[in-house]
Fold this protein.
Amino acid sequence: MIKRHIVCFYAIFIGFVFGNAQTRLTITNDPLSVIARTGIDNVELSAAVSRLPMPPAEPARFWTQIANDPKYSNHQRRVAVFELFRRHVYVGMKLSDLAMALNHPTWLTPNDINIIWFLHGGKLPVDVQNGIVYALPVLPMPGETDSIVDLVISGKTELDPQTFLPTPGQIESFRNLIFGKGASPAENATIEEIGFVEFGEMKRIAPKNGPDQGKD
């Protein structure tokens, strides 16, 4: 009788341990659970991102919560920004919808945003001839490799006839829209191209005709 109870208890114990191990394994194997952890190393983060399915099952706010939260490392926050744009932002998207997807970004400040209207030597992952090019630096830090999102927006760059620089009003309108500071004339403009300087590597994101159409 005692032996039977011991065997029974042992079987229950093994089942409990195995069941917990299975649960932990399932959680660990879920790439979103891995990505959402703080303190994750860059190799594990990259591996988890590479296993993400398309079209995205997660909402855009999954990425904005990481990108906007300073408890995560700068690297993890930058990865979240790039995945947000890669998975939830698309060619043809209205700027009003982009602003909603970005959800009041804290990885960016209004003064970081600039218009690029000509190139003097260098290269961009997008074509400056196809619209207004806005550069959005991703958590810029002195001495660190550049991480930038370049967006080509429908329309033409307005240049001041005296300075030949983009007019402050055009840049301010875009900044206000991105940070949710009221209505903007730019809200119905659309994204024409998306490009990244992702940890120093230049990438042009393949056009998508609508949300959730797949990765580049």
User: Anything to note?
Assistant: The chain has seven helices and five strands. The two ends are 65 Å apart (CA to CA).
